[in-house]
Amino acid sequence: MIEAQAVPHDPRPAIPVRWLTLAVCGSAAVVFGLMVHNGLSIAWHDGTLYALAVACAVLGVLRWRTHDAPTHALHRTRDFAENGLLLIAMTVLGGLASYAAAADTRGFLDAGLERGDVLLHFHWLAWYETVVRHPVLQHLGAAAYASIYPAPWMLIGAMAWRGERARARRFLATFWLAAMLTLALFPMFPAKGALDHLWHGPIPYMPTSGLYQGEIIPMLREHTFGAIHVNALRGLVCAPSFHTVCATLFIAAAWPMARLRWLLIPMNSAMLLATPVEGTHYLTDMLMGLVVGLTALALMRVIAPWLERSVPERPFFG
Q1: How much is the average pLDDT of 282-304?
Q2: Which pTM value belongs to this model?
Q3: How far apart are CA 212 and CA 198, in angstroms?
Q4: How far is CA 213 from CA 34, 119, 147, 193, 195, in A?
Q5: Which among 237, 254, 248 is positioned nearest to 292, based on CA atoms?
Q6: Higher-pLDDT residue of 220, 309
Q7: Which of 284, 285, 286 is closest to 248 using CA atoms?
Q8: Whether residue 221 has pLDDT greater than 50
Q9: For 225, phi and psi rounded to 5 degrees?
Q10: Distance CA 186, CA 94 (A)
Q11: Is the dihedral of CA 113, 119, 121, 125 positive or negative?
C-alpha cells in the first residue's frame, strides 16, 4: 500500500488571513472613497481588468476547493491561491491609491530632491547619459526594472511549496504596510522625476517611467483625468521610491531561502541599479524608499507576534 504523503506544516503561528483580508477591505474602502472625492472612476471595459478578474476567479475556486488540504499538493495549491488573491488585491489597490493621493498634492519638490542628490554627490545626468550611450544597458535596465512584477510571485510560490504559511503571511502583511507608508508619505514629496526636471531638449532615450508623473499629476489635480484604465496604470510615486521599497522587502524575504536567495538578490540588485534611469528617480528618494522598507520590516517584527497570537487560525472557507 502506498502511504499518503505527509502534509507540510509550519510550526509557527501565522497571522490569521482574516486580518489580511480586513486590511485589504479597509484599504479598498479608503481608496474608493478618495477616488469618489476626487472625481475618479475605473474604466470597466478594460482587457487587463477582465484578465485580473479571471485570474482572481480561478484562484478563488482553487482556494475554495482545497480548503481542507489533505495532501501536500493541495496544501501548496491552497496557500498559493490564497496568497495570490491577496497579492493581486494589494497591488491593484496600491496603483489606484497613487492616483487618488496624487490628486490632493500641491506643487513639485524636484528642486529639493535634486539638492539632496548634490549633497550625496550623485550625478543623475551622468548616469542617464551612460545609459543613452549603451543601448544594451537600456534593454537590461528595462528588464530589471520590470522584475518588480514576477519577484513577489516567485516568493509566495516558493513559500507555498515549502509549506511556510507563517512566513508568507508576514511577507504579505509587510508588503501591505510598506505600501501604506509609501502612499502616506507620497503627498508630502510630489515630483515630476529626474528626467523631466533635469534634461532639456530632445530625449534620446525614453525610460520605462517616461514623463508620466509630470503629465498625469496636473490632470489629476485639475480633475480632468477621467477614468483610470488598469492596463495603463503608471507609477506616480517619485518619493519614496516604491521600487526601492520592494527591493528591500524582496531581498529580506528571499534571504532565508538559500536557492531563491541567489536568484532574487542579483535580480533586485539589478532593479536598484536600473531604478534611477528607468524610474527617473533621484538617489534621495531611493534612500527614502530604503528607509520605508526597513521601517516596515522593523514594525512588522513588533506587530506580527501580536497578530499571530490574537485569533486562532480557522478555515476561511467552510
Answers
A1: 96
A2: 0.92
A3: 15
A4: 19, 24, 21, 7, 10
A5: 248
A6: 220
A7: 286
A8: yes
A9: -75, -45
A10: 12
A11: positive
Report d(CA 98, CA 276) in Å as an integer: 20
Under DSSP, the state recorded for 162 is T
Q: Exposed, middle or buried: residue 261 (CB in 10 Å: 0-12, 13-18, 19+)?
A: middle
Asked whether the predicted pLDDT for residue 317 surpasses 50, the reply is no
Q: What is the pLDDT of residues 51-102, one digit of tens each?
A: 999 999 999 999 999 888 788 889 899 999 999 999 999 999 999 999 999 9
Sequence-distant (≥ 6) Cβ neighbours of residue 298 within 8 angstroms: none
Say how far apart CA 288 and CA 240 lie, in whole Å.
5
- Closest CA relative to residue 244, chosen from 195, 189, 293, 210: 293
CA distances from 40 to 45, 49, 71, 98, 124 (A): 15, 16, 46, 12, 34
Question: Whole-angstrom Cα distance, residue 147 to residue 268?
Answer: 8
Secondary structure (3-state) at 213: helix
Q: Which helix (H) or strand (E) holds 210?
A: none
Cell numbers at residue 236, please? 506616480
